[in-house]
Amino acid sequence: MADDLDESGGFPFPMPSEEAVAMRDGSIESHPVGVPESYEEGKSTRWSAKAIADVHAMSQLGRYQLRGFNTFSRSMPTFDDLVFVPATMTRLPLEGYRESCETETVLGDRPGLVSEPIRLAIPIYIASMSFGALSANAKAALGYGASKAGTMTCTGEGGMLEDEREASKLLVYQITPSRYMLDLEHLRKADGIEIVTGQGAKPGTGGVLLGMKVSERVAKMRSLPLGVDQRSTVRHPDFLGADDLQVKIEELREATGYRVPIFVKVGATRPRYDVAIAAKAGADVIVVDGAEGGTGASPEILLDHTGIPTISAVRAAREALDECGMSGEVKLVLAGGIRNGVDAAKALALGADAIMIGTAALIALGCNSPRYFDSYAALGTAPGRCHHCHTGMCPVGITTQDPELEKRVDVAAAAERVARFLTAMTMEITLLAKSCGKSKVSNLEVEDLRALSLEASAFTGVSLAGIDRPYSW
């Protein structure tokens, strides 16, 4: 081995000859002065431990890796890079417990097109997560919790679950390209229809449901073989562009008697153009799902390397509606990595009319809670670190179809936690709105925010703190 080393001891920088000899002979173990600490510790800036592990995994599997949860490797501006600037001298704040702040949110209030708009007591609702990805108990608990808080849920892919329809006072029915269990009677039972063209966690691809989750009940609802991996189609079979989408929206209006609002959901990729197309095609509500959005299963590369951040997507979407002259008429819902009422309030200030939460709602149900430690260990993980939604072996019974694991979700208790979380989120929003002098959460605006980083300012158009003007490249 010594014969393979050059005079510098094999290192790409000069070394004293004695130390080089000593290192070759093994008489000293430490590197000489001048060797980067990262070199000494084996911390390559390019070949991290994860990069090496990925190559090992792909060389064994012969395919890309799948997992659940959301993006892990991204480093991007988030809502934490924005702060509110409450009222002091230039505006009057509202008294915290003595003055009220209106939280009611109406979606689809378009006279002549929608006779029964959706009225939510709060500006937050539960995202589209399918039965299949989630257990029946989890879906029911989300429905009861949302109903108690005065808001709604969404079916997700795979059709309408009876348990969820019974639990949810308000329920949006999702139509995906796969058209699993698309049923006219279910459409007419819904309070809204959502056409999905993409989602934030995996834009440009369809849903993934691995075979361990395709139980007898799931297989029957989706007309699938029992226990076989399901990969949904990505394009709707009967429309490709704006003109076809307009026809489809009109068909759905006729099928539901012009009663319920029509939603169009897009992944955050080109929101300025996608939102404009959906608005002009006749959507009543447009859902923009940012890159931080979660999923039950996705190719890992899509989670980490596709889509744009939620905070930049909402500004582009709002500007698209403004340019179309449809702000106020077409409502904008934002989703993707929203964790609490602070994130939600900032999203409202950036231009959203309502907020949709998925992962946060699952955590309120009990996802990653410190129980069933042996089940976490069997997956090679621990509470607070579990992202194994795709395996069907969820330790707390949320993302599984295993009957024994599903029993771990106490529907009544889990529903109460969801309701309390939604209530607490709303309290956080109103606390911030009142501090900014707003008597309605819908009155929050960009002027109420300041950016703490150049990137956040450039992404959102929010003025930099201390400069009071947006940053531009």
In short:
The protein has 473 residues and is an alpha/beta fold. Helix 9 crosses helix 11 and helix 13 crosses helix 16. The N and C termini lie far apart (52 Å).
Task: Please render the helix and strand layout as text.
Elements: H1 17-25, H2 37-40, H3 49-61, E1 66-69, E2 82-84, E3 105-107, E4 118-120, E5 124-126, H4 136-149, E6 153-154, H5 162-167, E7 171-175, H6 184-189, E8 192-196, E9 208-209, H7 216-222, E10 230-231, H8 242-255, E11 262-267, H9 271-281, E12 285-289, E13 295-299, H10 300-305, H11 310-324, E14 331-335, H12 341-350, E15 354-357, H13 359-365, H14 373-378, H15 403-406, H16 411-435, E16 449-451, H17 454-460
Parallel strand pairs: 5-15, 6-7, 7-8, 8-11, 11-12, 12-14, 14-15
Antiparallel strand pairs: 1-13, 2-16, 3-4, 9-10
Helix pairs in contact: 4-16, 8-9, 9-11, 12-16, 13-16
Which oligomeric state applies?
single chain
User: Poorly predicted ranges (pLDDT <50, ≥5 residues)?
Assistant: 1-16, 19-33
Question: What value does the Rg take, in angstroms?
Answer: 25 Å
Q: What is the SS-derived class?
A: alpha/beta
Strand segment count: 16
Global morphology: globular
**How helix-rich are the residues, as a percent range?**
25-40%
How many domains in all?
A: 1
Strand order of the largest sheet: 5-15-14-12-11-8-7-6
**What do we call the CATH homologous superfamily?**
Aldolase class I
User: What's the architecture in CATH terms?
Assistant: Alpha-Beta Barrel
Query: Could you give a short account of the major beta sheet?
Result: 8 strands, parallel
- Count of separate DSSP helical elements: 17
Distance between the termini: 52 Å
CATH topology: TIM Barrel
- Percent range for β-strand residues: 5-15%
CATH class designation: Alpha Beta
What's the mean pLDDT score?
A: 89
